[in-house]
Amino acid sequence: MQKLDIKLKPSKFFIVLASLTLILTLVLIISLNLNRWARAFLLAVTMRYGISIIRNYGLLTGGPAISKLTFDASGWLLHDRLRTSSAELCPDSTITTWLCILRFQITGQKQKRTCLIFRDSLAADTYRQLLVQLRTNQAYEAEKARH
User: Higher-confidence residue: 70 or 1?
Assistant: First the structure.
């Protein structure tokens, strides 16, 4: 089993997608038939929340944003600014050629963590290695579940 040590970098695609979503939301709020104060309040709250999402998760500067993944014989390790946690990859993860939505069950916790990895977050070779490892792991887990 090959060890993977994946350091994520900010995804330009995620930042553009989140920015466009924020801009469209702001346009919708402006077009609402509300009084000026209600509209200003909604704009301020939405802008603050949108900027925090982009800063924390798009630029990977927030405490809970996963910035590094490690996989070896003992399993997955998730690294963020606050801690390193061992985890198990959940079967409801989604793997495509341009985006991986990885769901992890943290050891000893009920809550799951989600990690979005866009193709531009990694070098092309590293993204390919991740896809191979995830598909191999997925096939192994499916075979294990059958027996």
Answer: 70
Burial of 140 (0-12, 13-18, 19+ CB in 10 A): exposed
What does the pLDDT look like over 15-45, one tens digit per residue?
Answer: 999 999 999 999 999 999 999 999 999 999 9
Full-model pTM: 0.84
Q: Hey, which residues does 104 pair with through a beta bridge?
A: 89, 113
CB-based burial label for 60 (10 Å; 0-12, 13-18, 19+): buried
Letter string b/e over residues 67-104, b meaning 16 or more CB atoms within 10 A of that residue's CB = bebbbeeeebbbbbeeeebebebeeebeeeeeebebbb
